[in-house]
Amino acid sequence: MADSRKVGVLGGGQLGRMLIEAANRLNIQVNVLDAAASPAKQISAHDGHIEGSFKDASAVKKLAQACDVVTVEIEHVDTHMLEEVAGEVAVEPSWKTLRTIKDKYAQKGYLKEHGVDVAESEDLEGKGAAGLKAVGERFGYPFMLKSKTDAYDGRGNYVVKTADEIDAAVKALGDRPLYAERWADFRMELAVMVVKTKDGVLTFPTVETVHEDSICKLTYAPPRNVSKATTERAQELAKKAIGAFEGKGVFGVEMFLLKDDTLLINEIAPRPHNSGHYTIEACPLSQYDAHLRAILDIPIPPSALRLREPAIMLNILGGKNPDSHIQVTHKAYASPNASIHLYGKGDARPGRKMGHITVTAPSLADAEKEMQPLIDFVDEQKGKSLGARTATTDEPLVAVIMGSDSDLPVLKAGLQILEKLQVPFTVRITSAHRTPDWLREFSKSAADTSLRVIIGAAGGAAHLPGMCASWTTLPVIGLPVKATHMDGWDSLVSMTQMPRGEPVATVGINNSTNAALLAVRILGATDLAVRERLRVWMEGNEKEVLRKDQELLDQGFEKYLKGMGKW
Amino acid sequence: MADSRKVGVLGGGQLGRMLIEAANRLNIQVNVLDAAASPAKQISAHDGHIEGSFKDASAVKKLAQACDVVTVEIEHVDTHMLEEVAGEVAVEPSWKTLRTIKDKYAQKGYLKEHGVDVAESEDLEGKGAAGLKAVGERFGYPFMLKSKTDAYDGRGNYVVKTADEIDAAVKALGDRPLYAERWADFRMELAVMVVKTKDGVLTFPTVETVHEDSICKLTYAPPRNVSKATTERAQELAKKAIGAFEGKGVFGVEMFLLKDDTLLINEIAPRPHNSGHYTIEACPLSQYDAHLRAILDIPIPPSALRLREPAIMLNILGGKNPDSHIQVTHKAYASPNASIHLYGKGDARPGRKMGHITVTAPSLADAEKEMQPLIDFVDEQKGKSLGARTATTDEPLVAVIMGSDSDLPVLKAGLQILEKLQVPFTVRITSAHRTPDWLREFSKSAADTSLRVIIGAAGGAAHLPGMCASWTTLPVIGLPVKATHMDGWDSLVSMTQMPRGEPVATVGINNSTNAALLAVRILGATDLAVRERLRVWMEGNEKEVLRKDQELLDQGFEKYLKGMGKW
């Protein structure tokens, strides 16, 4: 055996199962405490598993005695027993961390104490309807009513929309220990998987999460239409939050990105998390590999957490029919980049997490295109209207900017080429002289968007592409436009003769076709699909000239010129 | 359960284990016939497995009775029992195929009959030393002596180097049924995993395989320094070969690429194969996913077999010490892109396949850089001299071509920039007018190499970049060189004014710095590491100008000009 240390896990659901997938590859034995046929045990044949509940103290003790490290796949465990065994066996993350995090109100208080931004919350335990009313007046409506403990996948949460709903909310959450949270008016939800090792804190990339009925439905890696600066801020915030806790392992950090770009922590999970499933295919090390390595002090090179390819993860939930989830996998069989994971669970109750699908592709736009039919299918299965579907837009790879709309007619042929070769683009008007600040802002942020190439068209002094090139690291193509004087020479020279340091790839005067084709070649340098479309297009041109040559040969020059109306 | 069909596998080694990894994710039950603690059974906990030998007819029958489809992870099985049960259970691939392939001499005869190119071979069964001598005279030395059956990983093979070795060879291979094969003087070995479904034949990408002591040591996907045309020919040959056999599933096709670019089939395996391990990380569907889908008639979209990222696979073999293989995995822990697979085997006998490591990276050069220390370490563990290590060269991403060596001084500054920003490049002399054929050949094949951008420097009529652009789909940067007349205007216009269809990205006259920086930007459009190096470099320039500005402010223009020696 590669590593004779034994790992014990409280809980044998899908997270434990995927942890075991990772452990199997390193020949590390994982002992699971859960029911006999639990998903994790199905893929791990040995006699070290324990049958019972991960909430049962005596079973936890038994597990601890047979292992070198004990970890969890769920936080709703008996932390008092973990505290008791912590002297004899390593418990990762620490029972203290588990105890703080499993109580969501305590979790938020702890984060606040450690200077981490969280949504404002207020204790309502024992305060009944009157307490809710007071909070409603202070926070305004809607606000979130949440159970402090045993709440997940929307269970234990209630959105109180008006004062009239208070009684219903109290009734719905019964005798649970409650607290209220101020409504976060977010633009989107982000999540970061954090890895805490003996040496420090590492992060996976930031992802966007989309919830439906309070259950994670989709994750997008990277998030859509979010700047690199914001994704980095999210990683920093997640790092700060997890740095405040004791112990080793991965942590899921869910947060809100508010409309003013503020980030607030929503919730923390002290274990692998749904928002990190995409890492199995999309990163060199998955969240499960990372968790295992972290708790066993096996090194994790930070760049092993990079994104290999953009990825989208779609949860497969139990649907309206017992086999709805199976229908989704059948549909996914036809999807070339879809990795399917089923968890070996029993009955598919509506909303139960039965599996997930990850699509990775060279671009997020490609992944979206492939995932959309699956999302539509899931929505159909649920009986949802298709109107509510996620918008899919091709993220532009090329920006075509011009100093004035008078340049647009010159650009027409080039834009048609981009369309023909299926390169998503955006066209903007920005002048180096009339809107210098706008141009600067656009150019400085371009590299953080989906853009890979910029075409700048300008006439006369034609500073547009040169200034743009000075503010970006992306390749900039200059298209000299013939202006009033000098037959276009002014524009041509203003672009080619850029100083050493900021090149502009200049093409012929008014030749927007070549500007577009150059953008296509630049994309095709690494995107073989684009390159292939270009090759086919060039082959078509070659054939057309060969055809004309044959016609000229067949007809003679006189007849040919007559055909051209030039005789 | 997602799919209630049960799959039976003869053999529970690493191939069966990785097949079960794939089956687990689809919740498909796989029953394994092999010894109790075999690698495949370790990750599949249910009571459907059968204990026994896959060569034992009665055990095969028992397995068949409990399954819907029976397949193999090894071809050395009892095909007569499979023939017998084939009426009651699906056997994939067909027992006929297994019977033909398990006898290597019959396999080659069958391929030859079906018009597939294989190395010339001759039956030696019962002919003894005299037979070998006759073959040696006909084939010349060296030639390969092989056992028709039960030969793998070099066992059952003997290279007969001279007539003097004939007795030793006969003795080494004992009473086995022998045949001889003409020596293939190959440039390298290639392999293709082929998938035969109910609807047709699909292929994974072509890979290069490197053997050591007749055991597969490394695979490179894609192969190093092989044109796209050749890799496609290899896929076609593999497709043709497997098209000749009956049944469904994946097949490994090993072939020789001879020095004259001829391809010859070496051997076929009717099952997942060592040369296809890389597909687990490098392709959307692995060879194991594909095998399972093929034998169960689950759809396989052809593009699911694409290469996500270049990949290198290194086998982990038992070494000189019992834990040599574990040392390799420890070393690999530090490698950010290494996926480690251990097979759960018992003792590590020297040469026994204990696991493998796959490194994927954005380029094969990156993967080589990361894998080399692991190869060196493996060689050290074996006690091999480091001199024999695989050569690693940075494959060039940029080609700088010029019409004449007189252009080289102008290029100097640009080449220094490429060096500084760590972009691997190659510099060549090729003239559009003096070596038009050479230029054509270079340009036409450029896209099939590691190249992503071409810089063409030329003066006067300056046709070089324009002609190059006409023969390639790669982006071409034109660097106008100032020639004898017209101050460089001739070159500048000859490049910018290319006809619609073949753009040349023209930079300023003699400004090789900008040509190089443009190439860097083009690479940086998709390679974030390159982009980051460029950003840091640009920031340095910015700081330098700001520093000078401050100095001018501090000193006044008079002192400053004096410092420049211009007062």
From TrEMBL, chains A, B:
One of the GO biological process terms: 'de novo' IMP biosynthetic process
Enzyme Commission number, as recorded: 4.1.1.21
Keywords: ATP-binding, Decarboxylase, Lyase, Nucleotide-binding, Purine biosynthesis
Keyword Nucleotide-binding: yes
Gene Ontology molecular functions: ATP binding; metal ion binding; phosphoribosylaminoimidazole carboxylase activity
Matching Pfam families: AIRC, ATP-grasp, PurK_C, RS_preATP-grasp-like
Enzyme class: lyase
Pathway named in the protein's UniProt entry: Purine metabolism; IMP biosynthesis via de novo pathway; 5-amino-1-(5-phospho-D-ribosyl)imidazole-4-carboxylate from 5-amino-1-(5-phospho-D-ribosyl)imidazole (carboxylase route): step 1/1
ATP-grasp domain residues: 108-296
Catalytic activity: 5-amino-1-(5-phospho-D-ribosyl)imidazole-4-carboxylate + H(+) = 5-amino-1-(5-phospho-beta-D-ribosyl)imidazole + CO2
Coiled-coil ranges from the UniProt annotation: none
Signal peptide: none
Family matches, as PROSITE patterns: ATP_GRASP
Gene3D superfamilies documented for this protein: 3.40.50.1970, 3.40.50.20, ATP-grasp fold, A domain (3.30.1490.20), ATP-grasp fold, B domain (3.30.470.20)
Family stated for the protein in its record: In the C-terminal section; belongs to the AIR carboxylase family. Class I subfamily.
PANTHER family: PHOSPHORIBOSYLAMINOIMIDAZOLE CARBOXYLASE, PURINE BIOSYNTHESIS PROTEIN 6/7, PUR6/7
Name by which UniProt lists this protein: Phosphoribosylaminoimidazole carboxylase
